[in-house]
Fold:
Amino acid sequence: MRKWCPLVAVGLGAFMLLVDVTIVNVALPAMSADLGTSFGGLQWVVDMYALTLAALLLGAGTVADRLGHRRVYVGGLGLFALASLGCALAPSTGLLITGRAVQGIGAAAMFATTLALLGTTYRGRDRALAFGVWGAVNGAAAAAGPILGGLLTEHLGWPWIFAVNVPVAVAAILLTLLTVGPGDRTGRRRLDPFGILTFTVAAGAATYGLIHSGEAGWAEPGSWLPLLVAALALAAFVVVERRTAEPMLDLALFRHRTFVGLVGAGAVLSLSAWAMFPYASIWMQDRLGLGPVATGLVLMPMSVVSFVVPLLMGRFGHAVPARWSVSVGLLLIGIGDLLQARVHADSGAGVLVPGLVCVGLGAGLALPPMSSALLGAVPRERAGMAGGALNSARQLGLALGVAVLGSVFAAADGPAGPAADVATALNTSYLLAGGLGLAGAVLAFGLVRTGGRPDPGDRAGAGHRPEPEPAATPVPARAARRSEKGSD
Structure:
């Protein structure tokens, strides 16, 4: 049993960081009542974590390659634990949001190293099994987030959704130090601080402008000026990445249509599938009077379906091309959002359940093949970078989705408006999410091509010699097994 202790150590960290993406959704009304948090403040509590994680994930992979994956993983766990304690003790919304940002930094360090640690610890069939368990842990985290958050909030109080991370992180640190080898410092790539800075500014300014517009309207400079800053920062990011010898994100990857299609699909999926959770939770608790546990139970069918479907796909769906599973999955997500856009002033929470199940089915179909198809579409030496780009896009899609849909939701005075207005706001937001999901399905079907690797002569680097990328970002078990066959 000792040989599986590293898997437990890595699984604890992965479970914890992914649960914290969604665990706060059912606790938002309790936070608002306790801290006097505004609607925009609640958006930042959700968004700051995903935004920081998205902005720093690629850079964290490079740091881990240089300093060692175990060292960065343990450091991420420690920082995550301290930030979680700070969130639990936060006396104000501002400090809570700050704690969420620091949590995101720790989560980026953990997320960028979990698969690499498993890859260097296990070999052969053990490695395939470890990657399979890691994938199941990811699914379990998504399924457990709403109900775990509901139980802790209702019976112990919202600070416990953060405080519970501390003993889990301490256990993971001890287990990692005792059972996981230090590994080699395999990376020779230089850090790309200007790339990290410009990307972070672009993402943060865009999110700020969208959230502020929901509170103050578009006439306020605080709404449109940050979007202008975001556009300038994005342009600066492109210039930096084109001129840097070892960029954080090689822009030549965007020459591959499948890469563009899958990264775009990943961002749209997170937006369409998950970004409405905070507002549905506010409606169910503030308007319908449901408790956090009941709210979590309403959301659970979607989480359970999105956990079970990948297991069935892994068993019976190997022959389905990624182009079809991703595009059909996004189509179902879009349809599920449209089914949820049927809320009336006298509706109960059950009106959301059919749509939630459809969304869960779509997510379960689309997510498993997304990473493996991406890795098959880019040069091997850019596999780690491409995987990191996909994960960053998914988190950024969630962050921007919460901001965009929240702006639409707030147009009808948000949760403070009459019941009919809140119903209208929910329906409008779900219609937008559904429309984007359908557009994502068209994007994926039109761009994604599976089967065959890119032309070996198509170098991903511009003006520099590419070098192998360590697997510092999550890759699916299927891709890992293919790699193992080629090396063992």
